[in-house]
Fold Glycosyltransferase family 4 protein.
Amino acid sequence: MSKNVALLGFYVGARYFERYSKNDPFPQVAAFKLEGRFREALKVGGASVESVASLAISTYPRNKKLYFPGSSFIDDIGRGVVIPLLNLPILKLLFRFLGAFFSLDRFRRKGLDAVCVYAAHTPNLLAAYLLNKFFKVPFFVYVPDLPSYMDMGMKRSALLKFLKRVDAGIIDRLMGGASGFFVISKYMVEDHASWYKKPYFVLEGIAGRAPIDSELKQVSASVVAAKKIIFYGGGLNRAYGIAELVHGFIESNLDYELWLCGRGDLEEFLVATSKQYPAVKYLGNITPDEVAAIQSRSALLVLTRDPQEAYTRYSFPSKLLEYIVSGVPVLTTRLGGIPDEYFDFFNVIEDFSISGISAALKAIDAADQQLLLQKAACGKIWALENKSSTAVGRKIVGFMEKFS
């Protein structure tokens, strides 16, 4: 595809993201990584990619910074424009919409063949929708999360919940103008009557490259553990089964340490628990390089979301692809949004409960460790061959060519 594609979303470049996200209560690290890999896949698939982005940041007063400046960046993938943002309710959305629309229009005047919107976010969708209506530029949408199930760790007032429902209706209307969708789970479309007639491509995630030894050695020297490590890195929200994981680990009484990092509504719980149980260690919000180093030194990587939660049918935790390319054994619950092919390489918690997690951890400890490592090694090879930017890039671009 020799066409020019604008990726409209939240990929603001690594330096800008690190500078302005580090103090946010809910830094969108996983989403930033996934959009970056999607951007890479577009280029690998043959597209010329330019990014239009604003920072995904908590609105004031959750984040105390009121203004985020505009910027630009250039890297191996292409160029990017960062929209300035006034971080106040309503005005933040207006800044996003205006910045997105006028940036896209500048690209259009230079030659723009398609827009790909990352995430179903109303201001960005509206900008792409209007560009399509006025100038016939087709747009596609990558939906990594259904808007109705986003912000799982945040408490909202009745008014905000009502506005969220109104927003969902607006999003449905705007999505109707898209030429096609990329979705994390097929159920996003199959269970959504207003989307069902649109072309769609299931893209549950994109695997990043495995860190090389020289990169890990720079950080891993600081990873010192008295015992084998069970590790979880990501959102620390009650809705993600973190409390059950901690209590299940304590109940198992295994000779391991449980390390957790990230941000969320259970931070205080983890600080208190780690004081009472020294084998539970809360590391705070650490850098991606530190996360990769700890993953590489761990005995087991875990994810314990409750399969009965409605959102899991429409979710594929991008953390699982990070886990699988590490080559370390993975233990997870069986979520509806995870395709069956992945379970050839995962170890499964069949009963989501404190006792069920405890039993699964004990079973891992009692299993043949060489077989666990062999399964993990096969998973790493499979993911890099089938789920990397290189593997899916041509398919993504081919889908856009077909339905533009």
User: Anything to note?
Assistant: The CA atoms of residues 44 and 263 lie 33 Å apart.
